[in-house]
């Protein structure tokens, strides 16, 4: 079923009886050419591009819960491509370009809104670092504008410029960045993949791998054994646990990342603002809620909920940046398990087992990568070669020392 304005009018006039579920609910087949483990944004996008761009068929996505139950439905919806390092910047800019055409591509309203992002800086040295980042962004065709304090004050007059814990001296602005409705992205890719014949199988947990002579033959699941010539794992916060079932130990730690939303307020924040020095970032949803977050919880966990010291820390960051936020009432908070890699950058690579591929290590920033990650993982699964923008995301880089340490914090996952 194609969505269009005409369709909305027709359904309105005929009692809304023609709407169909966005995807089928198929029974698992005994075997597939390609099985994707994990029905988050990355797994669904991978299946979509495998079928659409690479012409593959007989594909299944196996999801242990329901579509949208993982981080794809828990994130703070920010999309951007303001990266510095050559291994990262072209990849995230490729993703940004895919975001820009995504809704037309999927014929689905994912509420992609290019409302801009501003990274605040507080010292001359930090301004120089942001200028360098902006130049690196320009080199890969991205947009970046360095705002001095006066220009910033015109855009966001409500920040606490002089008395904040870190006085604000300006910001790096990426106008094309913004937000997208996170679960809408999952639904759009699920619908698109389903229309191309992909089986999306929910409530189907992978509990083991069948590996024979160094080659994967299929997966054990709560709904029985499913054979597969190739298996792509895209399970985000569960990467270490799932890959351990194939005997693989990953350079990944799982931490909880929390997010918060206030009651609905009149429009005040037009884009996304990040306050790195205060470990706080914020935007405003279309419903008016202030959506904000901060650091990951400082210890390893697989619980999808966080602890109170981080809540206090994030609230302090918000108060330091814009004291009037203290008057807003908090509506909800939640947590998701993020797969923190040792250098803060992702992995899209083959593994030591033939036919088994890994997509993971997205840390707190994989939502923005969803389109490019799906495309690059599909490219790898289809051709056995990395996509040109993802050649640096090798699994062996932690052994060879070719790490992509965007934040420059070393092998300290909770600081990336
Ligand atoms: C609070 C929070 C805020 C965030 N904010 C942002 C942001 O603003 N911008 C940004 O770019 N990123 C953000 N992120 C990160 C982003 O959400 C993730 O990096 C990204 O969603 C991970 O990819 P995914 O969508 O495929 O993950 P998921 O949606 O988690 O998908 C993985 C799926 O695998 C399934 N699974 C796990 N084990 C198995 C198994 N054994 N068998 C079958 N299925 C299995 C899970 O149920 C899950 O549905 C945030 C994350 C959190 C938690």
From TrEMBL:
Main location: cytoplasm
Domain Rhodanese: 34-78
SUPFAM superfamilies from the UniProt entry: FAD/NAD(P)-binding domain (SSF51905)
NCBIfam families, per the entry: soxB
Known EC number: 1.5.3.24
Reaction catalyzed: sarcosine + O2 + H2O = formaldehyde + glycine + H2O2; sarcosine + (6S)-5,6,7,8-tetrahydrofolate + O2 = (6R)-5,10-methylene-5,6,7,8-tetrahydrofolate + glycine + H2O2
Intracellular or extracellular location(s): Cytoplasm
Organism: Pseudosulfitobacter pseudonitzschiae
This protein's UniProt keywords: Cytoplasm, FAD, Flavoprotein, FMN, Nucleotide-binding, Oxidoreductase
Protein name: Sarcosine oxidase subunit beta
GO cellular component: cytoplasm
Family per record: Belongs to the SoxB family.
Protein's UniProt keywords contain Membrane: no
Pfam families in alphabetical order: DAO (PF01266)
Cofactor(s) needed for function: FAD; FMN
PANTHER family linked to this entry: FAD-DEPENDENT OXIDOREDUCTASE DOMAIN-CONTAINING PROTEIN 1, SARCOSINE DEHYDROGENASE-RELATED
Gene Ontology molecular-function annotations: nucleotide binding; sarcosine oxidase activity
Keyword Aminoacyl-tRNA synthetase applies: no
Record-level GO BP terms: tetrahydrofolate metabolic process
């Amino acid at each position: 079923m194609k969505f269009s304005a005409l369709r909305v009018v027709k359904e309105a006039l005929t009692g809304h009886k023609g709407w169909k579920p966005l995807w089928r609910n198929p029974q698992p087949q005994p075997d597939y050419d390609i099985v994707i483990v994990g029905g988050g944004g990355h797994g669904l996008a991978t299946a979509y591009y495998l079928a659409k761009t690479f012409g593959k068929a007989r594909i299944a996505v196996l999801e242990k819960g329901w579509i949208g139950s993982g981080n794809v439905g828990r994130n703070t919806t920010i999309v951007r491509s303001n990266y510095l390092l050559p291994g990262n910047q072209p990849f995230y800019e490729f993703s940004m370009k895919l975001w820009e055409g995504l809704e037309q591509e999927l014929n689905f309203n994912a509420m992609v809104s290019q409302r801009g992002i501003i990274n605040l800086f507080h010292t001359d040295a930090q301004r120089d670092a942001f200028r360098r980042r902006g130049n690196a962004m320009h080199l890969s065709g991205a947009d970046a504008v360095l705002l001095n304090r006066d220009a910033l004050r015109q855009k966001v007059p409500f920040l606490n410029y002089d008395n904040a814990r870190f006085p604000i001296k300006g910001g790096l602005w990426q106008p094309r960045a913004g937000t997208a409705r996170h679960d809408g992205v999952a639904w759009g890719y699920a619908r698109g993949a389903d229309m191309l014949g992909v089986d999306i199988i929910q409530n189907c947990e992978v509990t083991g791998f069948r590996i024979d002579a160094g080659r994967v033959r299929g997966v054990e699941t709560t709904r029985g054994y499913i054979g597969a010539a190739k298996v792509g794992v895209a399970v985000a916060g569960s990467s270490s646990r799932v890959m351990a079932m194939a005997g693989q130990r990953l350079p990944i730690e799982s931490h909880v990342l929390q997010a918060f939303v206030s009651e609905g307020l009149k429009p005040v924040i037009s884009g996304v603002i990040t306050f790195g020095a205060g470990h706080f970032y914020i935007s405003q949803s279309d419903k008016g809620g202030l959506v904000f977050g901060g650091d990951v919880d400082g210890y390893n966990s697989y619980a999808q909920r966080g602890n109170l010291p981080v809540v206090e820390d994030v609230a302090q960051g918000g108060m330091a940046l814009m004291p009037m936020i203290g008057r807003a009432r908090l509506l909800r908070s939640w947590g998701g398990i993020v797969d923190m890699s040792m250098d803060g950058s992702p992995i899209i690579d083959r593994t030591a087992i033939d036919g088994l591929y890994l997509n993971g290590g997205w840390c707190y920033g994989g939502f923005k990568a969803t389109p490019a990650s799906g495309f690059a993982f599909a490219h790898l699964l289809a051709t056995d070669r990395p996509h040109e923008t993802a050649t640096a995301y090798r699994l062996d880089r932690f052994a060879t020392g070719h790490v992509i340490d965007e934040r420059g914090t070393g092998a300290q996952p909770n600081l990336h």
